[in-house]
Amino acid sequence: MKGDKNKLISINIDKIKEQKDIKLLLQLLRLQDEETYNHCVRVANIVYDIIIHMEDSSPWNEKEVKSILQGALIFDIGKAFLPFNLTSLSRELSDFEIEIMKTHPTLGYEIIHDVFDEIVEKIVLMHHEYENGKGYPFGLTQIPDYVKLIQYADTFDSLTSYHPYRNSYTYKEALSIIQDMVSESNLDYIYLEDMKRFVERNEVIIPKRRENIVN
Questions:
Q1: N or C: which end of the chain has fewer CB within 10 A?
Q2: Residue 206 has what pLDDT?
Q3: Cis amide prior to 144 (ω within 30 degrees)
Q4: Which candidate, 69, 80, 85, places its Cα nearest to that of 30?
Q5: Where do the domains of the chain lie?
Q6: What's residue 91's pLDDT?
Q7: In 10 A of CB 6, how many CB atoms?
Q8: Is the alpha carbon torsion for 100, 96, 138, 42 positive or negative?
Q9: Distances in Å between the alpha carbon of 68 and those of 19, 80, 94, 110?
Q10: For residues 20 and 115, is the Cβ–Cβ distance under 8 A?
Q11: What pTM did the predictor assign?
């Protein structure tokens, strides 16, 4: 019974975005890649929506939730330091480019290490780790629950957003894919019901080739 919902509801993501270090990193990310910036902001909003609507009290207190939201806003910051702007290519990546892309968690961690707390550091470093050991960069088999929540939001937003090489999925289609990922142990089951409720609360028909603009 850790999180007081009244306190959690009062958290303002826009104020977190304006915190000095977060604002600087977001400006850098937006300069390098507008869509990755937009993606991070949407992921943070999905994470916040899920946390404040959890059926039981949030497992995290107000301070921890603020750290989780900081991490959600900058979890992909390492992509700002990738060579030749891999994130903006209008095609699927080659095997070589995929290996370079996989360095972004460690790049991001090196940038934010000792600037933010452990929660933020682990989100940036571990958001592509999976408990089946098939993630990267280290192939870990144990990751914190708050990182798993970021993974759900990251996956969902990526599926429902337009990419140059494929159209977006509807919310229901994305949820079905996520359920398959849980069945295949590529996502932990822990937040599946929370994700289902998120879709029920927010379900809309996502236009194909939509524009994903975040202010």
A1: C
A2: 52
A3: no
A4: 80
A5: 5-202
A6: 75
A7: 8
A8: positive
A9: 14, 20, 32, 18
A10: no
A11: 0.91
